[in-house]
Amino acid sequence: MARWLMRPDGFEPRVGARFSLAAKPIEAVGFSGTVACEVLELVEPELISFSWDDAAAAEPSGWVVSFALRPEGRGTRLLFTHRGFDPDSPAAQRSRTIMGNGWRRIVAALGDAAAAA
């Protein structure tokens, strides 16, 4: 996870495990720079889903990040989702736009890490 996402603190591959990720703060949306996560689903080696919240937020965002692997032809397809953005919240939509750019970079890094394995 540290090679392509962010270095996790406390990550364990089990449902219910809580961990955090350190990122750069983003003032435009009031992001503290620490992501609080909990593993919600795990089917090794096919799926991991975890919550994604600002550790300093008063209320959870309800965001969920998922990485799923599916066999396809002679390879594997990665299905990535980051769901839970409130369509009526301008702040949530700004966050979605900002993170969308970062996710493209992260998914590309995951592909590079997989190719090197």
Automatic annotation (TrEMBL):
Family under the similarity heading: Belongs to the AHA1 family.
Domain Activator of Hsp90 ATPase homologue 1/2-like C-terminal: 2-111
Superkingdom of source: Bacteria
Name of the protein in question: SRPBCC domain-containing protein
Naturally occurring in which organism (per UniProt): Jiangella ureilytica
Signal peptide: none
